[in-house]
Specification:
The complex is a heterodimer of chains A (252) and B (182). Chain A is an alpha+beta fold and 252 residues long. Chain A folds into 3 domains: 7-57, no CATH class; 63-92, no CATH class; 98-249, no CATH class. Chain A is 44% helix and 17% strand. Chain A has 8 helices and 6 strands. A 6-stranded antiparallel beta sheet of chain A has the order 1-6-5-4-3-2. In chain A, a hairpin with a 5-residue loop joins β3 and β4 (176-184). The two termini of chain A are 44 Å apart. The model of chain A is unreliable at 82-103, 114-131 and 213-218 (pLDDT under 50). With 182 residues, chain B is mostly helical. Chain B is 69% helix and 0% strand. Chain B contains 8 helices and no strands. Chain B is globular and about 50 Å long. The termini of chain B are far apart. Residues 81-96 and 168-182 of chain B have low confidence and may be disordered. The chains are: A alpha+beta (252), B mainly alpha (182).
């Protein structure tokens, strides 16, 4: 067995997670290896220092408003038919989704389809080789949606648009959906959601978040709008890691 | 659809302090953290039926919150916004019972945590602060256990360097001195 120990192993020893065989080997070596002992000491001390530092800095009670708001959500959820009743307002910015998400999301969809339709109509010349935003995804975007893991980027050769994959999740009816960003010099930036429909990707929502590349204007509400839309879709928790890989593999 | 059980609600409320601490340490802004916690609770309540009884509730909640945070970061990145974690003012450590020198170290460590990459910071929080095992942290983050270990080791090496904890202890004399600091 090797007498070389990696940082990961020394850390695992400090954390009590090194496997028994390696642990025994390390403990036999330690008396004559002060360098290893020092490294382990560093890992032990960074652990306790990090824990103490975070706890000391963040040792404060949960704000009463936040607690009240969560309690209200729990109460409301346990009375399914009272959505029209008293809906305690969220302290700031967001209102609980349940009451208003569905109608808002429906309006948005119409609005977005209208806006994109307008763009396609007025910029028709550019649209050849360009991705289509709302509706059935073009073949290139379709391939990216079926493959690209969340957190990664890919450039569409046809249009030069850059796709940043944000998340994957299952809709209420268990269809796979993906949230992604589209950045394009001429067309600006969008946040979009595509869902599987009849063996194809259909882009169901696209929100413009900025104009061209140099335009700094970003509507502050786009993320909340997306959240509302996700809620209206009955989106489950994000699929991460292997769960996402498996969900994408199932498409093929 | 049946609502969440009373037990589920009680658990969620009881878990709020941990959830908020995790959110605060991820995003380091009370406003953003409160929004994140609220959003995570909404998501959890809506998906209460997908929680498997007998599994760890804390891990399930952290996973929901963390994924919402990642989504937010990716959206921000898409929109050209910068991750401004380093920009937030660190708050003073106010514990009167803490020795001044020790307080300085904690402050340096706090600063150093803020300077970590998001990947390193979240794994540090899960393992060192929230006390999840490597395996549990890997499940929450959806990455292999080897990735958790390499990120965690790098995070701690970085913190040690930034807060002056890293001097390798080569002589037993120095080791004694270090231990009296504890």
């Amino acid at each position: 067995m090797s007498d070389e120990f990696t940082d990961e192993e020394l850390m695992a020893y400090a954390d009590g997670e090194l496997d028994p065989a390696r642990r025994a080997r390390l403990e036999a070596l330690l008396p004559k290896r002060p360098d290893l002992a020092g490294r382990i000491d560093m890992f032990a001390r960074t652990r306790s220092a990090a824990a103490e530092s975070v706890r000391t800095h963040l040792d404060e009670p949960v704000p009463a408003k936040l607690k009240a708001s969560v309690e209200a959500m729990i109460r409301q959820a346990s009375q399914p038919n009272s959505a029209e009743g008293v809906v305690p307002l969220r302290p700031r910015k967001r209102t609980p989704f349940v009451a208003w998400a569905a109608p808002i999301a429906a309006c948005l969809l119409a609005l977005v389809a209208g806006a994109i339709g307008y763009w396609l109509a007025t910029q028709g010349a550019v649209s050849s080789g360009y991705y289509q935003i709302a509706g059935i995804a073009d073949p290139e975007l379709d391939r990216v949606l079926s493959k690209l893991p969340s957190g990664e980027k890919s450039r569409l050769a046809g249009s030069g648009a850059e796709i940043s994959m944000i998340a994957s999740f299952l809709r209420g009816d268990q269809m796979l959906c993906r949230e992604f960003g589209i950045a394009h010099a001429a067309m600006g930036d969008h946040l979009a959601i595509a869902c599987r429909s009849a063996g194809k990707w259909s882009v169901d929502l696209a929100l413009r978040t900025a104009g061209g590349a140099t335009d700094a204007y970003k509507p502050a509400s786009s993320a909340e709008t997306i959240d509302a839309f996700l809620h209206a879709l009955g989106a489950g928790p994000a699929l991460v890691g292997q769960a996402e890989t498996d969900a994408l593999a199932k498409l093929h | 659809m049946a609502g969440p059980s009373d037990e589920f609600g009680d658990r969620l409320i009881a878990f709020l302090p941990n959830l908020r601490r995790f959110a605060m340490s991820l995003c380091r802004s009370p406003d953003v953290a409160d929004d994140l916690v609220q959003l995570a609770c909404e998501r959890a309540i809506a998906n209460a039926s997908s929680f498997v009884p007998g599994t760890r509730f804390d891990a399930w909640m952290f996973r929901i919150l963390r994924n919402l945070w990642i989504d937010q970061l990716r959206r921000d990145r898409t929109q050209g916004r910068k991750d401004d974690i380093g920009a937030h003012e660190e708050r003073l450590v106010g514990d009167a019972g803490t020795a001044p020198e020790h307080r300085l170290v904690l402050k340096d460590v706090w600063k150093a945590i803020g300077g970590l990459t998001a990947d390193q910071r979240e794994v540090l929080l899960l393992v060192c602060v929230e006390e999840f095992s490597y395996r549990e942290a890997a499940d929450i983050l959806g990455v292999p256990i080897g990735t958790v270990m390499s990120r965690l080791a790098r995070a701690r090496v970085n913190i040690a360097a930034a807060a002056g904890i890293d001097a390798p202890v080569l002589r037993s004399k120095r080791q004694d001195k270090v231990e009296t600091d504890e």
